[in-house]
Specification:
By secondary structure, the protein is mostly helical. Helix content is 69%, strand content 5%. The protein has helices spanning 9-16, 33-39, 55-108, 116-149, and strands spanning 44-47, 50-53. The chain has a two-stranded antiparallel ribbon with strand order 1-2. A hairpin with a 2-residue loop joins strand 1 (44-47) and strand 2 (50-53).
Length: 150
């Protein structure tokens, strides 16, 4: 009897057929309340299958927000201080320049038509008026204070 070396269609089908498998969905691991609490460093707990913040977690969040706000405010204040410093330096340089210009103008003016003495006189008059107003305001404050004591 002769045996054929050729495979029949049934054997061929079995050789190439892959087993049918149903995909298995991986299960999410379920963590207990203690595991969640430890992993979150005391900030979270499980409550009725929901993860919620603990009071400590709420406090930690508010502290972090306050720290960031304080840091932002400090940076803003430092920036304003820097801008004020630049403005003061600029005004100081302008003032020195003005003082030099005034000094040179007074030193170089030798004719009798100079208006500098009249400007100085008007400034003295304004200063006297300011002192008189300030003295009167002090007098009124003292009068009001003595009436309260009686």
């Amino acid at each position: 009897m002769e045996v054929s070396g050729q495979t029949n269609s049934y054997q061929m089908m079995n050789a190439h057929q892959k087993p049918i498998t149903t995909p298995v969905e991986p299960k999410e691991p379920t963590y207990g309340n203690e595991e969640i609490y430890e992993a979150s460093q005391g900030n979270l707990i499980r409550n009725d299958d929901e993860i919620v913040l603990t009071p400590q977690g709420q406090n930690n969040i508010s502290n972090a927000q306050e720290d960031k706000a304080t840091e932002a405010e400090a940076q803003s204040e430092a920036k304003r201080d820097e801008q004020r410093g630049v403005a003061v330096d600029y005004l100081g340089a302008q003032s020195k320049q003005s003082q030099v210009e005034i000094y040179l103008a007074v030193a170089t003016d030798s004719d009798g038509g100079d208006s500098t003495p009249s400007v100085i006189e008007s400034l003295r008059d304004v200063q006297k008026q300011n002192q008189a107003v300030e003295a009167y305001a002090t007098y009124k404050e003292n009068q009001a204070g003595s009436e309260l004591l009686q």
